[in-house]
Amino acid sequence: MSFRARLFLVSTLAVLVPLAVLAIGLRREMDRRLGDEGRRRGSAAVGRLGVELARERERVVARLEALSSDLAADNRFRLGLLGQSASRAYVLDWAGEAMRLSGLSVLQVQDTAGRIVSSGHFRNEYDEVRGELPRFLAAVAPAPALVRVRTAEAPLLALAAVESVGVAGRPLTLVGGLAAEERFLRGLDPDPDLTVALAATPGEGAVVGELAVPFLDALTGTADSARLVVTQSGVTLAALRRGLNTWVMVAVGVMGLLAIILSAWLARVVSRPLTELADKTASIDLDRLDQDFATDRSDEIGALSRLLGEMTVRLRRAVAGLREAERRVAMGDLARQVNHDIKNGLVPIRNVLRHLDQVAREEPAALPGVFEERKATLESSVQYLDTLARNYARLAPTASPGPCDVNSVVAEVLQAPRAGTPIRAQLAEGLPSVAVDRLMLRRVIENLVGNAVDAAAARQDATVTVSTERARRDGQGSVVRVHVTDTGSGMTKAELDSAFDDFHTTKEGGTGLGLSIVRRLVLDLGGSFRIETEPGTGTRAIVEIPL
Amino acid sequence: MTPRTIRRAGVLGAALLTWLSAGCGGGAPETSTKPAPSPDPCLLPTGRAGAPRTLVVAVPWPGDTAVVAPPQPRPMVRLDCTGAVRPAVAESWTRDRTGRAWTLVIAGAALHASAGGAAAEWRTRPEAATTLRYAGVVSVVPLDQRRLVVTLDRSYDSVPRVFADPSLALVTDSGAAAGTTFALRLITGDARDALDAGADVLTTDDSELLEYARARSDLVVHPLPWSRIYVLAVPPGQRGFDPLIPADSAAFRADLARDAVRVEARAAAGPFWWSDPGRCSEIRVRATPSTTGSRVTTALSSDPVGRAIAERLVALSGQPMRVIDGQYARTPVTAIRSDLGTAYVIPVPRTTLVPCREIAAWPAGATVVPLIETRRSVVVRRGIPPITVDFDGRLRAVETR
Question: What interhelical angle do A300-362 and A514-524 show, nearest 10?
Fold first, then answer.
């Protein structure tokens, strides 16, 4: 994984992870707070529930008292109770009518034996014996009690009470109640978030309170206690969670997007100078120590870049020293080579001279003829030595530094007659003089222009341009920069890497010493030399000579 | 042989039999039944009868056909509230000596009705053909324009009541019948409001409404025939109520009629039309699957009397009750076939003209325990045109032509 990718990943996670932790923490805290609040409200609701149940029971009792008074004064009911057949139906229907008028859900009239005289909620259960119901209600009074009574179709749960009345000298009991269905229980507590239900059918949500109420199942005759549970609706909590989740997701999404964009930008900003430094550093070798590490940055990368630049300068100096040592070694080799070559050149001359001396001594008359005969050998050897001398002179020029106008040197080179591609000059005005050997500089420019013209010859529309300018190199002061640019065939990297090797040439009849000599000459001048090239586009040779 | 082939053979045989008995003088003399004009015991006492007009009949739901008999189509003969046969489309009838062949004489005033038309309509109309088949009619042969010979598979002393069945009724007049007609008006709230608003006729079993009507001098209350029997129908394989209703259950039924329901009721007393299914043995009845589920007593939601009876049974037995709703509430037999419960409290007509047709619809092997029978009363406004009551309790305007 690249440094840039790691940087991007770390930056993104650095934003998203804290955000996720924040969201989880918020949810947990919200749940805890709401749970505490729910339990507190549940406790309060249980208290209110007990009060409301007692109040509802009192309402039932009040209605039973009113019905008792009415029943005691009802002559037709009395006659029916005494056995008058014409009033029998009236007695059977009395509880139903009274139940509807009084708003009760359950109403039953029983005699002392528990026989049902009249029933409102189940009219046709008359004459059945269900004495356990009034006995239970009388036993638990005045506490509110729940009973489950029979109807024809389904059992009915009711908050019930009992009242006694005497008719025609017969004690009767009235059992009345209100249906304790879900709506009734819900109405006992006004808190909209809380639900009251029987334990058998608790509402949805968390149980926050319970209340035990005496309970009789009249279907089985089983007395027990019913549990009224208060549950808190999960709707509010769910809504809060949904809202929080939504906003967290939105925040995470926005932050994530921003984090990705910022991380990508940051990674690019941080890694780009490092990548550029790496690229520059990768191209450095002993023959290419002219990389420019100049930077305006004041941060660590700037410091690193400057360190690399200083290292390059030191390397350049070291290389110069090394070149010097190499040159000295080479000079020794060259001296031996020159010695050898001169000897090779002198041997025929010496042989001719010995021969001429011998002829002069032995056959003086033949000397002219022999001389003419061996003259070609002498000329050939002299030509050889002359050529040899010129070649060696090109390898080891003698430097004579002095003020030198670079523009004038360029102009001299361009004035020389030259076949092939025309050369354009773009010379900077007011260019300061440099302290170099004028001849060495001319040789440098001549070599570069010659190479450019040769490279441009490969294309008909190619151009060759020579330009000068004054430039500034960080840490090295000002320089005079000479560009020799052609739009010829250019070079591959492999070609560029071997272009500086001695005796390497791609041209027919070339010595393979051109760029090698140029590099050495420029280094001897204290400058720098580099080539920028691209196959098919052209080549630019850049020479920088310090002022 | 296809049913149509059989029917044709029967018709030809009956025609030959009729020709021999009527034309060759070989048979016993026919017994002619000419209804003697007699005062109609089923006329409602409405005081001094008024002129024919349109009477407003208050009904509990639109299109209620149980209150008044439609003027068209008209039955071949009519049964009054006492069960006596009275002329309708057929003005007279005769029988042969065997009592199997009956000749109906179409009334001359019955426009658009002929013996040939009646025979053709009975043969082609599915309901009529079904009725004739279950009634044991062998052939229907028109002798001429007015005489129609109907041959049955058994002998009858009096004219067979099947001829009063609505499925054999005929359209006799194209225009509206002259005289009194009925206009149905829906009761939208309290039925007393309908009477106060001027309704002329209202049938009900609501005791409070009847008490209100009796208290008004402009209204007359008259009981209708006992028309319904409430039965406990137990599908085959169910015996849940056997201990509750003993074989000698007269006292139980009387108590039920007196205390459990709030309409005029009495203990059901036989004979019942379903008590002699042997006569229908040739009829193939469909079987119903045995019910093995929960023990449920059911009643019809639209029938408070049946519901009250079911409630009493539930109170005594401890079994749960379920009220049948929806389409089953109007078709009790279909409800039983629905296999919803173990016993059903349903009303059945007290009288049926074609018992075998009714029995065929019941599940084979079902136990039918008669409980109570009820009747409704009719409230009529004094001074309205004369109205008579049919055997099924439906009101019919007395024809004036």
Answer: 110
pLDDT at B9 over 50: no
- Rounded to whole angstroms, the Cα distance separating A247 from A327 reads 76
Distance in Å, alpha carbon of B369 to nearest chain A alpha carbon: 20
Cβ contact, residue pair B323, A153, below 8 Å: yes
Chain B positions in Cβ-Cβ contact with residue A122 (cut-off 8 Å): 311, 315
Give the mean model confidence (pLDDT) for residues B229-249. Answer: 69
* Token representation of residue A235: 């709707």
pLDDT reading at A201 higher than 70: no
In chain B, which residue's Cα lies nearest the Cα of A154? Answer: B320
pLDDT at position B14 = 42
Q: Which residue has the higher pLDDT, A152 or A497?
A: A152
How far is it, in rounded angstroms, from Cα A355 to Cα A375? 12
Q: Are the C-beta atoms of A448 and A438 separated by less than 8 Å?
A: no
How, if at all, do strands B54-59 and B201-204 pair?
parallel
pLDDT band for position B147 (cuts 50, 70, 90) = very high
Of A88, A126, A153, the CB nearest to B321: A153
Which residues of chain B neighbour A153 with C-beta distances below 8 Å? Answer: 320-323
Residues A19, A23, A28, CA angle at the centre, nearest 5°?
150
**pLDDT value, residue B167:** 93
Whether residue A63 has pLDDT greater than 90: yes
Mean pLDDT over the full length of chain B: 79
Give residue A154's Cα distance to chain centre. Answer: 65
Q: How many CB atoms lie within 10 A of CB A426?
A: 12
Look at residue A103 in the predicted model and tell me its pLDDT: 92
- CB-CB under 8 Å, A128 with B259: no
Of A11, A484, A521, A480, the closest CA to residue A270 belongs to A11
Higher pLDDT, A300 or B400: A300
CA-to-CA distance for B354 and B347, rounded, in angstroms?
17
Look up residue A163 and give its two tokens: 């009242």
Peptide bond connecting B41 to the previous residue in cis, omega within 30 degrees of 0: no
The one-letter amino acid at B202: L
Cβ–Cβ under 8 Å, residues A105 and A178: yes
Query: Which token pair is A245?
Result: 């989740």
Return d(Cα B362, Cα B236) in angstroms, integer. 11
| pLDDT tens, residue by residue, B98-122 | 999 999 999 876 667 789 989 999 9
**pLDDT-derived band at A339, boundaries 50, 70, 90:** confident
Is 0.90 exceeded by the ipTM? no
Contact status, residue B381 vs residue B319, Cβ threshold 8 Å: no
Edge-first strand order for the sheet with A477-486 is A423-426, A464-473, A477-486, A538-546, A528-534
The pLDDT confidence band at residue A32, using thresholds 50, 70 and 90, is confident
pLDDT at B5 over 50: no
Size of interface A-B (CB pairs under 8 A): 37
> Which of B29, B389, B9 shows the shortest CA–CA distance to B201?
B389
Helices A234-282 and A300-362: angle between axes, nearest 10 degrees: 20
Residue B212 reports pLDDT greater than 90: yes
**8 A C-beta contact, residue A185 and residue A197:** yes
Query: Is pLDDT above 80 for A409?
Result: yes
> A166 φ, ψ to 5°?
-110, 130
DSSP per-residue letters across B58-85:
EESSTT--SSB--SSSB-SEEEBTTS-E
Query: What is the end-to-end Cα distance of chain B in Å, rounded?
Result: 47
From CA A349, how far away is CA A360, in angstroms rounded? Answer: 16
By DSSP bridging, strand B297-300 and strand B343-349 are parallel
In the block, tokens 């393979």 appear at A512
Going by the DSSP 8-state scheme, the letter that residue A545 receives in this structure is: E
Residue A107 has which token pair? 């109403």
Tokens of B66: 């149980």
